[in-house]
Amino acid sequence: MSNNNNTTCVNISTLLQPEDIFSRRCIWVNGPVIVGAGPSGLAVAADLKRQEVPFIILERANCIASLWQNRTYDRLKLHLPKQFCQLPNLPFPEDFPEYPTKFQFIEYLESYATHFDLRPKFNETVQSAKYDKRWLVVATGENAEKVPEDIFSRRCIWVNGPVIVGAGPSGLAVAADLKRQEVPFIILERANCIASLWQNRTYDRLKLHLPKQFCQLPNLPFPEDFPEYPTKFQFIEYLESYATHFDLRPKFNETVQSAKYDKRFGLWRVQTVLRSELLGYCEFEYICRWLVVATGENAEKVVPEFEGLEDFGGDVLHAGDYKSGERYRGKRILVVGCGNSGMEVSLDLSNHDASPSMVVRSSVHVLPREILGKSTFELGLTMMKWMPVWLVDRTLLVLTRLLLGNTDKYGLKRPKIGPFELKNTAGKTPVLDIGAFSKIKSGKIKIVAGIAKFGRGKVKLVDGRVLEIDSVVLATGYKSNVPSWLKDNDLAEIGIEKDPFPKGWKGEAGLYAVGFTRRGLSGASLDAMSVAHDIANRWKEETKQQIKTVAARHRRCISHF
């Protein structure tokens, strides 16, 4: 079979965990399976090859035309003239006699296979072939792992359940709930660890902004001895214990290049690249009924373009690469962005005796993290049980004014829409203050206008002022990377981003999303439970239907005796 044959395969037992999901090594064939490498099988294969249709030939013997080679007497000749015995598209050699001998016919068949570059899978005995109306044809055999890799464009894995993209909190939550309901799945993660955003792209002083009961994942609470607002490291410890508790084993270092729904078969085709020390660079294709997008809204850094930034000369880094203000002692730092990250980075810099100036380009709600000893978020949720959102917002803003004072006075203008309504309609999260605002009032954190352009060691602001600075931290947020790999689909177009919380988790054609409803960890957990419940119901229904079909066939077989 030639290198341009687009058939694909995989040795499941060595590539997939948990291994007990599959009873056999599985090969996806993007074309027909031909059983037998005698004259008939070779003739079919040659004509398919001529029409550029991919295929695989299975042959139980160790050669083509095993009947002719191993089970005929030496003096045998063809009983008919050669013109009636030749295969399609290649005549016998002219110097062959009218009735070729057995050995000449074998020579002709071998030259036929060579001419059309036919490469059967020898020593592979078909034990059974069964048509499954739900899925596709599966060919099995003892030498599945010995197929030459150049036959296939990608190793292919059939997943008897969903493929989950992302091993962050959202992906782990879906997987744990599926595991609890005994639904098989695979988790693909491009990093080398779970929760890579938390482990690799957060600053050291970070704590959860909400009390732990609003951040825990389904079916496993935080340890009782954890504080109300766990640190970054405690949250990572919790996630790792969560993965261990539910025996979740993502496939790390595997990046999804594309995911496309194949309407012909009603299946998703997820193409990935794996980079590892053991296997090197490998490409895979996963075939599945359901695809769960759990990469979240913070997969890629947002890095705006600023005039003159390339000439600045000092350190420029994204908040995702910021760890601690220790290295910035005595430095003048421009922090671009006034969200929760910008506020906390500025606070950390000030606590390490740096001089931060924070760029504020738009209005922002700043609320105290707690009001009268109670979480502001929890207080707002409690009030919304009895009050409309606009009244809850007005009440919180009055209390905030009493506790923090007038934020407009210090350059932090409030939006016209209240904080909870703004979160519900635009997904914009208010800043929960943990000390930065007092630094702003004291002047230790300066508020400055938007950026006009950078120069060598300085920045010019839109109000005309020029600041001498040493470094820049871009607290400019993140964005989803889904549009780069979800082909022929868009989360908004298929309905996932159109539907408001709590319904924005289900799309079309078996596509699901977790963590895109802009409701933080608590919203992601609710999404995860909804997704897992829906997939589990469909998976169990289809499995039940298959069992009924098999039982019915068995009864029909018995009735014949």
TrEMBL record:
Cofactor list: FAD
Protein name, UniProt field: Flavin-containing monooxygenase
E.C. code: 1.-.-.-
Family (UniProt): Belongs to the FMO family.
InterPro entries: Auxin_biosynth/cation_transpt, FAD/NAD-bd_sf, Flavin_mOase, Flavin_mOase-like
Molecular function terms from GO: monooxygenase activity
UniProt cross-references to Pfam families, sorted A to Z: FMO-like, Pyr_redox_3
Pathway: Plant hormone metabolism; auxin biosynthesis
Keywords tagged on the record: Auxin biosynthesis, FAD, Flavoprotein, Monooxygenase, NADP, Oxidoreductase
Known catalytic reactions: indole-3-pyruvate + NADPH + O2 + H(+) = (indol-3-yl)acetate + CO2 + NADP(+) + H2O
Keyword tRNA processing in annotation: no
Gene: LOC104700128
Class in the EC hierarchy, top level: oxidoreductase
